[in-house]
Amino acid sequence: MNVDASRQTPFEQHVLPEIEVLLRVARALTRNDADAEDLVQDTLIRAHNGIEHFDGRHPRAWLLTILRNANINRNRRRRPELLRDPDLTFDRMGRAAGPEQTDAFVDLELDAELVRALDRLAEPFRLVIDLVDIQGLSYAEAAQALGIPPGTVMSRLHRARGRLRRRLDQTGLAPRSGK
Amino acid sequence: MMTFLRRLIPRPRNAQGERALDCVAVGKTLQRYLDGAATAETAALIEAHLEDCLRCGLEADTYRRIKAALASHRVPPPSDSLERLRDFGLELARSHGTKPGSG
Ligand SMILES: [Zn+2]
């Protein structure tokens, strides 16, 4: 992969390295693997068409905005009730297997309850958790992907975590600090 | 263990004598702090409070566990999808870069 950067087109330089992030975000938005792939393909075509007008700064933010618009367009063409199949959630939340997983501190019981609690959150709250806490986007990147101000990302995120936390409280999996 | 014992003894001011944050103020900034988005100054004040305050210390621990559990779901996207999209991207890149007539 020793490609001379000076011979790369702007598209290769700015867009290709972001494909994985785009796919992560697309999966969070669509909750469906095939739709996510289509959405990223759409995004790549739009980015390719618009690359001449892109100033080279913050490619990820630029691409996330394109992806969001592409997604809005796609949703307009579909019936909303077809968009989300709750049965797909569990597949998507599947845990990675691998040796590095054993190093991380993971509380399995808490984790199972958390997955259930996450699915019960209203979509805007579930989405910010998915983008920031699961996919690892920054507040600013999540804001681009959702088309909302970073402050709104933050407040939604904090409320969402509070709800997850209360759910764990109810099941006795989180220490009750009030006692 | 030391941390736990320290939390049982309330201290109104931290070791540097700076104005300590109260629980309400910590509650408002705790998540930003856990996300690494608080300023260094605020972070230091929060850390001092978490050391001293049992309640907020436990609260922070709970959110850390939640964050860790959520982060463990960060799996790579399906490799076949990713590969197809990378190929597609390269194809797009070439379709633009190798237009005849420029050299
Ligand atoms: Zn406190």
Description:
Chain A is an all-alpha fold. Chain A contains ten helices and no strands. In chain A, helix 2 packs across helix 3 (33-50), helix 3 (33-50) crosses helix 4 and helix 9 crosses helix 10. Chain A is elongated, with a radius of gyration of 18 Å. Mean pLDDT of chain A is 82; it is low at 81-105. Chain B is mainly α and 103 residues long. Chain B has a domain at 2-72. In chain B, helix 3 (40-52) crosses helix 4. The longest helix of chain B is centred in the C-terminal third of the chain and has 19 residues, at 79-97. Residues 98-103 of chain B have low confidence and may be disordered. Zinc ion binds at residues 23, 26, 49, 53, 55-56 of chain B.
Keywords:
heterodimer, A: 179 residues, mainly alpha, Rna Polymerase Sigma Factor, Chain: A, Arc Repressor Mutant, subunit A, 2 domains, 10 helices, 66% helix, 0% strand, elongated, B: 103 residues, 5 helices, disordered C terminus, binds zinc ion
Into which percentage range does the β-strand content of chain A fall? under 5%
Query: Which overall shape of chain A is indicated by the principal axes computed on the Cα atoms?
Result: elongated
- Taking the alpha carbons of the first and last residues of chain B, their distance comes to 72 Å
Cα radius of gyration of chain B in angstroms: 24 Å
Structural class of chain B: mainly alpha
Radius of gyration of chain A: 18 Å
Short description:
The complex is a heterodimer of chains A (179) and B (103). Chain A is mainly alpha-helical.
Fold topology:
The complex is a heterodimer of chains A (179) and B (103).
Chain A: H1 10-15, H2 19-30, H3 33-50, H4 59-76, H5 87-92, H6 100-103, H7 108-120, H8 123-134, H9 139-146, H10 150-170
Chain B: H1 2-8, H2 23-34, H3 40-52, H4 54-71, H5 79-97
The complex binds zinc ion.
